[in-house]
Amino acid sequence: DQQVKQNSPSLSVQEGRISILNCDYTNSMFDYFLWYKKYPAEGPTFLISISSIKDKNEDGRFTVFLNKSAKHLSLHIVPSQPGDSAVYFCAVPPPNSGGSNYKLTFGKGTLLTVNP
Amino acid sequence: DAGVIQSPRHEVTEMGQEVTLRCKPISGHDYLFWYRQTMMRGLELLIYFNNNVPIDDSGMPEDRFSAKMPNASFSTLKIQPSEPRDSAVYFCASSYAGVNQPQHFGDGTRLSIL
């Protein structure tokens, strides 16, 4: 059973528009959430994170929203650029980890394609 | 700054052979992680070390898999004997200790067992 689910294997958007990537989780005790980005033939790279005490965290074009009641988080990219084309993973450490991100569980990922 | 370095980048070998994957973490990082990525199971944590000591190896699939970290700058993941179902991309990552420290990944080793 997956603790984090990314139900959309792929997403295609036009350059300049908004990309919204979604992730659902099962355990309400998760207290920290991360997003990683992965290009082909490279390892994942950390993108942005959010603590469960917040409902939004923003870093430039990237914003993560957390809806605890729905056990749902989303990553918004505005405006989307062709260089954003990659696989995006959400990840969580064990419940009540307090931000100690050692034993991460990853979703299966969503392939984002941004068309010029 | 050099990132996490993995070798080899690609490995093709026959079933039954011993396979050794290597990783050099980022200097100064306290934690080292080994992951496996497959189509079926996605990205899974196999084992992680803190200050060269294995902390959690609950993700290691079988006794055929072993990992060592003889010093702060080197780790190996060994499969002996290898089987076709071990074919996957294996990633090494490292991080500092502490709250909210992200893991930094190497570019992976693509392993194919024939």
Determine Rg of chain A (CA atoms, Å).
13 Å
Beta-strand percentage range of chain B: over 45%
Oligomeric nature of the chains: heterodimer
Percent strand of chain A: over 45%
The proportion of residues forming helix of chain B, as a percent range, comes to under 10%
Category by helix and strand content of chain B? mainly beta
Number of E strands of chain B: 11
Order of helices and strands of chain B: EEEEEEEEEEE
Give the structural class of chain A.
mainly beta
Descriptive overview:
The complex is a heterodimer of chains A (116) and B (114). Chain A contains no helices and eleven strands. Chain A has strands at residues 4-5, 10-14, 19-25, 32-38, 45-51, 56-59, 62-67, 72-77, 86-92, 105-106, 110-115. The mean pLDDT of chain A is 94. Chain B is mostly beta strands. Chain B is built from no helices and eleven strands. Chain B has strands spanning 5-7, 10-13, 19-24, 31-38, 42-50, 53-56, 65-71, 74-79, 88-95, 104-105, 109-113. In chain B, strands 2, 4, 5, 6, 9, 10 and 11 form a seven-stranded mixed β-sheet that branches. In chain B, strands 1-3-8-7 form a four-stranded antiparallel β-sheet, with no helix packed on it. In chain B, strand 5 and strand 6 form a beta hairpin. Chain B starts with a strand and ends with a strand. Classes of the chains: A mainly beta (116), B mainly beta (114). Chain A binds chain B through residues 32, 34, 41-46, 49, 89, 98-109, and chain B through 4, 31, 33, 42-45, 48, 50, 55-56, 91, 93, 95, 98-108.
